[in-house]
Amino acid sequence: xxxxxxxxxxxxxxxxxxxxxxxxxxxxxxxxxxxxxxxxxxxxxxxxxxxxxxxxxxxxxxxxxxxxxxxxxxxxxxxxxxxxxxxxxxxxxxxxxxxxxxxxxxxxxxxxxxxxxxxxxxxxxxxxxxxxxxxxxxxxxxxxxxxxxxxxxxxxxxxxxxxxxxxxxxxxxxxxxxxxxx
DNA sequence: TACCTATGAACTTATATACCTGGCTTCT
DNA sequence: AGAAGCCAGGTATATAAGTTCATAGGTA
Length: 182
Prior knowledge:
By secondary structure, this protein is an alpha+beta fold. The chain starts with a strand and ends with a helix. The longest helix is centred in the last third of the chain and has 21 residues, at 161-181. The chain has two domains: 7-97, TATA-Binding Protein, CATH 3.30.310; 106-180, 2-Layer Sandwich (TATA-Binding Protein), CATH 3.30.310. The model has no long low-confidence stretch (mean pLDDT 92). Strand 3 (40-43) and strand 4 (50-53) form a beta hairpin. The chain has four helices and ten strands, in the order E-H-E-E-E-E-H-E-H-E-E-E-E-H. It binds a DNA duplex through strand 1, strand 4, strand 5, strand 6 and strand 9.
């Protein structure tokens, strides 16, 4: 069972913002400290995903629990800007999911040293003194899998949820084959 | 050698995972 | 006072973004 824990998306509005003014107009849900970071932060509610808006009109949504939530936050951003007459009307406007961060469970404790060998040294990184997880980059898959001795797994870097799910299924098979020989 | 351009990396945010360490508090 | 426990932060992963600073290379 692959569970989404974080969705990151980015988009473009075909306008240039004066973030100082935008932050002032929007009020307390906006936070802008150009000395610290060039983006303006926007959070609709305490536990809501974070939106980072840039001078160029580009923006990022981080911390969504689903693709739907990321899109609904984007819609709220568009509505908010429209209400404040910073209307981003353009054909160039776009938004896409850039990264799904997921967790999953293999249901058994893992011998990470055996897995490093079994999954292939060229595809794995395991330095327990540096980080307790095994970093696995399955060849061909455009995502990265972190495996922990507890059997818990993190799948990250995928733009497509189905890719993350398929990758986990493959890893699940590979791991059970390797551990059967161990 | 001096100056200019180009590249690249750190910064920030979210999030799970887990292991170590330092600092602080609490209990004996 | 010393031991024990707890909490926070650093370690690593992906990804977008703009700014800023460093370094590399090339040209004069």
